[in-house]
Structure formats: C-alpha cells, structure tokens
Amino acid sequence: xxxxxxxxxxxxxxxxxxxxxxxxxxIKEGNLDYIIFxxxxxxxxxxxxxxxxxxxxxxxxxxxxxxxxxxLTHCVSKKVKLISNMGAxxxxxxxxxxxxxxxxxxxxxxxxxxxxxxxxxxxxxxSTQTFLESGxxxxxxxxxxxxxNAYMGxxxxxxxxxEGADIILTGRVADPxxxxxxxxxxFDWSMNDYPLLGKGTVLGHLMECAGQVxxxxxxxxxxxxxxxxxxxxxxxxxxxxxxxxxITKLKDSGGMVTPATCKEQLLYExxxxxxxxxxxxxxxxxxxxxxxxxxDKVEVYGASGKTLTGKLKVSVGYHDGYMAEAQISYGGSxxxxxxxxxxxxxxxxxxxxxxxxxxxxxxxxxxxxxxxEYNSDINPxxxxxxxxxxxxxxxxxxxxxxxxxxxxxxxxxxxxxxxKLVTEVIAIQSILIDKKKVVPQVEYFES
Amino acid sequence: MKLKEIAHSRTGDKGDMVxxxxxxxxxxxxxxxxKKVTAEKVKLFLGETIQGExxxxxxxxxGAINFVMHKALRGGVTRSLRLDKHGKTLxxxxxxxxxxxxx
Lengths: 447, 103
Description:
The structure holds two protein chains of two kinds. By secondary structure, chain A is α+β, with helices and mostly antiparallel strands. Chain A has helices at 21-29, 44-54, 64-77, 91-104, 155-162, 175-187, 194-207, 259-266, 335-352, 394-405, 407-410, and strands at residues 6-13, 34-37, 81-84, 111-116, 145-150, 167-170, 235-240, 245-249, 276-277, 282-284, 289-294, 297-301, 304-307, 311-331, 359-365, 382-391, 416-434, 441-446. Chain A has a ten-stranded mixed beta sheet, sandwiched between helices. The longest helix of chain A is centred in the C-terminal third of the chain and has 18 residues, at 335-352. The model of chain A has no long low-confidence stretch (mean pLDDT 96). Chain B has a single domain (3-84), classed as Alpha-Beta Plaits, CATH 3.30.70. Helix content of chain B is 19%, strand content 27%. Chain A: InterPro entries: AtuA_N.
C-alpha cells in the first residue's frame, strides 16, 4: 500500500512587517514542504504602486531582501518551497531581486516565479462601475485613483508550481489562496471539488496571520495566559489528501495552539461564517469543530465549501486628502477640566477662522505619561487631548495642527508635550469584477 | 456578571466594518451567550462608536457568536480619524458588557 501523502505548510509572516526569526526557525526545524509569507494589507499595494511610479525597480515588500537573505539558504537545504505575495505592486522586480540575492548567497539553479495580472487599472470603467462601499461611480474619484488590484485565486501559483518553481512571488492574491494552491498542486484536487477547496481555504485562513493562531494577539494579562510569548512560534499545518488537517507549532517555541486560539483566528475578519468568499470557493465555517489531539496540536473537522461566486474583489487605491493630528497633555489638578476647556477653545477658533474640515475628532487619552508616581486620588491624573481632522488640502491640515499648537500660550494652564503630524491619506474602496476577465501571468527568473 | 467571565473575543476589520467574535471559554456557557448577547444589547452597549447596523451570526459548533458591525470605523481603516483605525480594541470593551443571568 502506498503510504498516505502528508504535506506540511508553515506560515512565515502575517503582515508585511512581521518578525523574521520565527520563520527561519520553522524552515530549519519544521520538516516543511512549503513556507508561506502573507504580507499584503488592504492598502499596501496602493502605497507600493506610488513607490513603483517613483522607481520602476521598486514597489515590492520593503522586507523582501531581509527575509530572502535570512531564509533562502535554509529553504534550499531543507527543500522547502517559498510562496509569498511580497511581490506587491511589482512581482517582476521582486523576483529579479530575489534571483540576485540567491546568486549572492551561492544558491544556483533556483527557479523563481513572478505571478501577476492582478493590476486591473486598464480595465476600469469609470462610468458604469460603482464602489461597493459608497455606491458612487468610479468617475467621482477620476484622476485621484492610484491603483486597482484584483484579489486573484490559486491559478497563477498553480501554473508556477506545475512549471517547477522553487520560489513564487505574487502581487495581489487572496490570502488563503497562497496556502490552498500548493494543496491543490500536491493532492491533485479538482477545482470543482468545493468541499475540499473549502477545507484548504479554512487551513489558509487559520494560518494567514502567522503568530495569531499560536497565542499571539490572545493573552489578556489575567485570565488568558500564554507561556513564553517573547519567543512566540509560528504555525505549521499538517494536511492529508482527504483535506483533514491539524494546526501545530515547533515544540521549543513559545505560545500555544489550543481550540481557543484557533477559534479566535477562525472568526477573525469573517462576516457570514457559512459563506466566506474567496476567489476559489465560498467556504463554509459554520460546522467546524476543533479538538486538541495532543498539547499544541488541534485537529480541525467539518470545514467545507459550496460554490463559486465567479467575481473577484478589486481594491481601488486613491488619494483622499490629508489627515491632521495634534496632541497636547494636561496633568495634575483639574487635568480633565483643562482638556475639555481646550477642546471648546479649539472648536471656537476653527469656526471663527472658517477652517473647513471633512471630519474632526477630539479624544482625551492618558494614564502615566507625565508623572511616573501614579496617584489614584487624582482622577484622572492626566489627559492628552488628541485632535484629528480630515482635510482636502495639505494647507488646511497644517493650519489645523498649528491652531492646536497655539494652545501653548493661548489656552488653558500648563499644557505640555505638543505633537503635530500631517499625513497624506491613501484610501481604499472596492469594486467587483468578473473572474474571467482577470488572467494570471507568470514569468520566471533563474539564479 | 460581565461577559469577560465566560467569553473571549477578537475584532477583525474590513473597510468600514468590523466583526467581533464572542466565544465561550466553556461551551456549556454558550446558551447564556446565545440568549443574552443580542445584537440590540451589543448596539446599546457600544453606543455611538458603531454608527451602522449590527448583524449577528451564531456558530454553535464553536460555541461562538459573530457580530458584523457596519459603519464602525469612521470611514474605514485607510481613512479613519480614530486612534485605533482597525477597531481592534473594541473586542475588549465588549467583554465589559454586563450579563444579567436572573432575567
């Protein structure tokens, strides 16, 4: 009898800036077949696109080089394939750069794939397409639009795997698809077998935030204790060809994998649990049960999937004006009263100057930033006024933070620790596009 | 009793929406959560922070409720004025919700 095929996948990053050491540990000691790095948040590609406009050789993940230098040698010696969306707005440049790094590390004959085709800017129809969020047509934003990237499914990665790529760098691909693709490839699953695709998608969803399923983002300091969080390990999924799988981690790493950590991650960023929409399948989370089969090993049962929407979500990035943020602290006697007085003064002055904002928020923050000896008799011992406003122009934003700054000599007594910040806002809205219109493209580089 | 005594929670974000899970530590407490933690009570407890409607999904096999909250982030993660643009801290606030087990 042929022994049952088992695949082990590690998750090496849950976001662009994630820790690198746990990923290296996984590659070295995890007995892995694949390591996946999920590094794209909603807005990342729009920011990366702006970078690419400045320099056509950039627009990929800022930690790509550091990650590759830390991981590639171990990937080769342990025969671990690497899949990541670190290509961001420029998978071709990312793959080229990775080939150069591999050569510098003395790693030859590596096949590095760039998977792209997610950039659908040329396909936008400004008059007929409308944003899911605002309901307005794209034409409202006109030339403010920076980028439009479709969430692609497994298809491009599958092509690269079939062509024998060792490293695959994509643009926008749905997070769980990064994990599902190697499963379809290894187990030869049918693209119409929705229950199996659903299982692989649930695996991907549990893994995509790396440390978050291993007790990261879980400890509450009192009731939910996590051991050795400082050395938090990243997760491993072990899966068989029938789609049954468990989540685990390296024995000597910190953190924990329990039904509770898995449940929090399972429902993270989920809306209707019976219909989790991805480009590959509508996954069903609603009958999942979890069982701790041994310490730090949780088996996942009942994951499934049912159909396909035929649509892809497209994130459209656009220039959305400016954000102004200014803060000042009041401490000791009547701290709260002075904070409140400051708010009234700022409101009055903004109105008097006719300083137009799209939205404005006044917060009062604080515990012990002013005096380290905490005195619970003074309640509150400090407040930090935060004024945040949305403006159309940079000039208006600058005027606003400067107006808050004038509280020094023109406001309540003893305000201190002013800070001012003006940032450009790059925002995201979404549209839907027919899946058939988005054709994945793959190019290869050799080291 | 407060919700934190029987449940844990995590917030996720998408655009201007958040989802907040409420998960029983012990699945035997799930019926209490199922009965007491209604969308109306959650909306009342979180007050003006959540501007839109709250939709509630039960996931009995996990002993969990998932709340999907519209207009929760003052325009969405990428353009929100909130200090916590993702609404990640909302889950811990929700755990402070009082649960009256007598009525």
